[in-house]
Amino acid sequence: MDIPRLLKMNRYWRAHPPLREMVQAYLGIEIGVEDDREVAKQHNEVDGLIALFGGIGGSL
Question: What is the model's pLDDT at position 35?
Answer without folding.
Answer: 67
